[in-house]
Amino acid sequence: MTIPRPRTVEIPRLLHVSAGGLRQVTPLLADHDFDLGCVLLGSGPGPSRAFAEGVANGLRAHGVRVLHHSHLAGRLDQAAATAATIIEDGVTTALAVGGGRVIDTVKLAAARSGVDFVSVPTAVSNDGISSPIASLVGRDGTRASHAARMPCGIVVDISAIGSAPPRTIRAGVGDLVSNLTACLDWRLADREGHEQYDAFAAMIAESAARPILDLEELDSSSSHAVIAEGLLLSGLAMAAAGTSRPCSGAEHLISHALDAQLGPRAALHGEQVALGCLIANAAHEWSQAAVLLRTFRRLGLPTSPEDLGMSRSQLVDAVLAAPQLRPDRWTVLSRGFRHPDDVEQLVMRAFDDGSPSPRRLPSATSASAL
Ligand SMILES: [Zn+2]
Predict the structure, then answer these.
(1) 152 is in which domain, residue-wise?
(2) Residues 156 and 185 grouped into a single domain
(3) Hey, which of 56, 120, 197, 280 would disulfide with 250, CB 3.0 to 4.6 Å?
(4) Are residues 64 and 202 both part of a single domain?
(5) Could you read off the pLDDT of 66-122 as tens digits, one per residue?
(6) CATH number of the structural domain spanning residue 133
(7) Residue 266 CB: number of other CB atoms within 10 A?
(8) Nearest to 56 by CA among 40, 71, 45, 44
(9) 170 and 155, same structural domain?
(10) How far is the CA of 85 from the centre of ligand 1 (A)?
């Protein structure tokens, strides 16, 4: 009898989520068999740099040689330069301490140069903290996804997450909740014969996102842990599926269209995805759409384009452009909603649950999309 071989999924050999986890990075790496011969540490130029310097000092105190790249901003040329350093200097382990841009830069450099990569997020604004995919900006200024590898280790310091701007936490919630619409799109694509659905990967992605619907606030460390763990599981869902499909559907295409349209005025990736999620829900006529809208209002997520400093017509244009951005990704927008009048109606339905909005978010001020 031949027993079919099970598929294999790479999962990190180190996973640590705690308050104060940043202080434990050195012993955690040593206890989990990371080669500390020479460590490359990547960080951004902003507030996460102080966290990274703390980690570097902890490693150096144990005699570890550390090379610190401190101005990573999510560019493809920076990933190439980091990979060159890894090869030239004999780096044995690469560490990223920072937000999504830093993590994706080092993640791709480590994957292409073949060394272990450890993700140490200081903000949870998207699901890149544990995914095998790196989203980076190329020479022409456009953002694209690149195949990388799952991190070999992930250390999440819940205290650091809580000290990041609240906006990053709302963005993380948006990116996590989008698993629900992405899986609706995936099932639709399968039913209509465009793509094969993977029930196990979808189950992981949906189970990761559902606890968000029960959250009452985004201020406590217990809420931050729920979000971080959900995003970690999202990465696992993508690794199991071998594609970003369980965590990326029409709502992500809408966000990509907004990035292209708004350029430096775009909001955070997860914030835009949150808006796209409400639109995709309305397009699917999902039974839980009103629940999601109420959850967004309760947690302070964007529930109208004005909340992110954009007009309704800009959002309508993005919804119309979204399906062309990636024609191979079949979503609910691929089979309809091609006429501006239909999309205007859709956008109106998406933000209406029959109750008045209790408050408005301040307009987006940052020019960056994670
Ligand atoms: Zn995303």
Answers:
(1) 14-163
(2) no
(3) 280
(4) no
(5) 999 999 999 999 999 999 999 999 999 999 999 999 999 999 999 999 999 999 999
(6) 3.40.50.1970
(7) 24
(8) 40
(9) no
(10) 29
| Count of the separate structural domains present in the chain | 2
Which helix (H) or strand (E) covers residue 69, if one does? Answer: strand 65-69
Domain harbouring 306, CATH code: 1.20.1090.10
Query: Is residue 264 pLDDT above 90, yes or no?
Result: no
Distance, CA 302 to ligand 1 centroid (Å)? 16
Do residues 89 and 190 both lie within one domain? Answer: no
**Residue 76 identity (one-letter amino acid):** L
User: 115 alpha carbon to ligand 1 midpoint, in Å?
Assistant: 25
Residue found by looking up tokens 């309508």 in the block: 316
Q: pLDDT tens digits, residue range 205-258?
A: 999 999 999 999 999 999 999 999 999 999 999 999 999 999 999 999 999 999
Q: Is the dihedral of CA 298, 299, 303, 307 positive or negative?
A: positive
- Residue for token digits 């999440």? 156
The β-bridge relationship of strands 133-137 and 93-98 is: unpaired
55 alpha carbon to ligand 1 midpoint, in Å? 27
CA of 149 to the centre of ligand 1 (A): 17
Average pLDDT on 191-212 reads 96
84 C-alpha vs ligand 1 centroid, how far in Å? 28
Final residue of a domain: which of 163, 192, 226?
163
Question: What is the pLDDT, as a whole number, of residue 170?
Answer: 97
Q: Which stretch of DSSP H or E encloses residue 95? A: strand 93-98
* pTM attached to this predicted model: 0.90
Q: Are residues 173 and 299 in the same domain?
A: yes
**Cα–Cα distance measured from residue 154 to residue 344, given in angstroms and rounded to the nearest whole number:** 42
- Do residues 146 and 276 both lie within one domain? no
Are 61 and 193 in a shared domain?
no
